[in-house]
Design brief:
The chain has 421 residues and is α+β, with helices and mostly antiparallel strands. The protein has helices at residues 3-29, 44-77, 106-134, 251-261, 273-284, 367-370, 375-383, 385-388, 407-417, and strands at 145-151, 154-160, 171-174, 176-180, 185-191, 196-199, 206-209, 215-219, 225-230, 243-249, 346-347, 352-353. The strands form four sheets. The chain has a five-stranded mixed beta sheet, with no helix packed on it. The chain has a three-stranded mixed beta sheet with strand order 4-10-9. Strands 6-7 form a two-stranded antiparallel sheet. A hairpin with a 2-residue loop joins strand 1 and strand 2 (154-160). The longest helix is centred in the N-terminal third of the chain and has 34 residues, at 44-77. Mean pLDDT is 80; it is low at 82-86 and 297-322.
Length: 421
């Protein structure tokens, strides 16, 4: 047996061992508690994907072990016997001797052509059925539609409660998509800068967010809970830090959350730290961030104006009370709406928890009342965001540093932000 053939045999053996170990490791590590696990879907679309993928993985695993098992059997049967002499009947051969070569077994060739063809045909049928089910994203005009906008490096959600995405959204939020449990929620996925990909694995598969295009999608959660997601299209420096959270609430809780999101913020009382923080915010932050009731794209630092009827090609609001901020200071043209920041569990593209140790033990609607503010990460983010999350602030991508602010300024800004519930 040649040295090259020996190397191939040993490589095949190592692949079998490595594959077995990998399957065991995956089975141990990727548990139901893993935030990005697809093994325990909790939504209709997630189950449709699991019903397709799981049998395919099983078939692929069986084929893998059959093929690798045959390689090992042939290796053992025709292994070299060193200095032993024999006729090959028991698998012993001299180093320079080869087994009888058999070529052109018609039955085997027909079998290993037909069997994969049948397998792939069956898989194709079930794949098409699953794809048609996943592409069922129609929603009536009365259904709520959420416009999902990817940008470097966070997600914006514009809620159209009447389903009409050609008019101004009823309210805008960021990073956390809040939905009622047990209801199909239509999504309209877009991008403001580069290609992103929206993925909440426990609820549905992936859908690309492409500049200049609109992709319909649907998401649904069986039960209330918080489900993590991740951008899955490389989109720049902080692609790995572009996360998202889907929060499913009971219908009554969702109605309470929705009504609160539509309430504008109020100016803090004069003479307070929050009022001083608002002064700093209006000068340093309001050029990008909107706080409904306090800022507008057309009138920074003053009362919000009624929204005009001008819309750009993405269907996004060009300034005003309800819409996102459109600014020339960023490539994406917008920054997260902060009107009800304290009602969220995360910030900075969902890479930091807004409350310490909140987890799932504090009800989502009670975070602002019961949670302990993660002041350390929030202040560090305001002071030097690019240090915490890679960005190209000089290239108008990502939040710039505010290292010119004093400690007192940052404390006051946090005091102001703490009123946004």
């Amino acid at each position: 047996m040649s040295s090259r053939l020996k190397a191939l045999v040993w490589l095949s053996s190592l692949l079998v061992i490595a594959g077995t170990i990998a399957l065991i490791v995956v089975g141990i590590v990727v548990t139901d508690d893993h935030p990005l696990s697809t093994l325990s879907p909790v939504g209709r679309q997630g189950r449709d994907i699991a019903r397709l993928i799981n049998p395919i993985f099983i078939v692929a695993g069986v084929v893998f072990f059959l093929v690798q098992g045959a390689v090992l059997a042939l290796w053992w049967r025709y292994r070299v016997g060193g200095s032993d002499t024999g006729d090959g009947e028991h698998g012993f051969y001299e180093d320079d001797e080869f087994p009888d070569q058999i070529h052109g077994n018609d039955r085997l060739e027909i079998a290993w052509t037909i069997i994969p063809t049948v397998l792939l045909a069956v898989i194709s049928v079930f794949t098409l059925v699953a794809l048609f089910a996943l592409d069922d994203v129609e929603a009536s005009e009365e259904d709520m539609v959420v416009t999902v906008i990817g940008q470097q490096w966070w997600w914006e959600y514009q809620y159209h409660l009447d389903g009409d995405t050609t008019t101004a959204p009823d309210f805008v939020t960021a990073n956390e998509l809040v939905i009622p449990a047990g209801v199909d929620v239509a999504l309209d996925i877009k991008s403001r800068d580069v290609i992103h990909s929206f993925w909440i694995p426990k609820l549905n598969g992936k859908r690309d967010a492409v500049p200049g295009r609109s992709h319909d999608w649907v998401i649904q959660a069986d039960n209330p809970g918080r489900y993590r997601g991740q951008c899955t299209e490389f989109c720049g420096l902080s692609h790995g830090y572009m996360k998202m959270v889907a929060v499913a609430l009971t219908p009554s809780e969702f109605a309470q959350w929705r009504d609160n999101q539509m309430t504008p913020a109020e100016a803090p009382a004069e003479g307070t730290a929050a009022a001083a923080g608002w002064e700093v915010f209006s000068q340093q932050c309001a050029s990008c961030h909107a706080v409904n009731g306090l800022t507008s794209a057309a009138n920074r630092g003053g009362a919000a104006e009624s929204p005009p009827d001008d819309w750009d090609i993405y269907g996004e609001f060009n300034g005003g009370y309800a819409g996102p901020v459109i600014t020339d200071e960023l490539i994406a043209g917008a920054a997260p709406n902060l009107t009800h920041l304290m009602t969220r569990g995360t910030f900075a593209g969902s890479i930091f928890d807004l409350y310490l140790g909140a987890g799932d033990h504090i009800p989502y609607l009670e975070l602002a009342n019961q949670g302990t503010l993660n002041r350390g990460d929030l202040e560090a983010w305001i002071y030097n965001a690019p240090e915490r999350k890679p960005a190209d602030a000089d290239g108008l991508r990502g939040m710039p540093a505010r290292t010119g602010l004093s400690t007192t300024d940052i404390d006051n800004v946090v005091a102001f932000l703490s009123t946004l519930d």
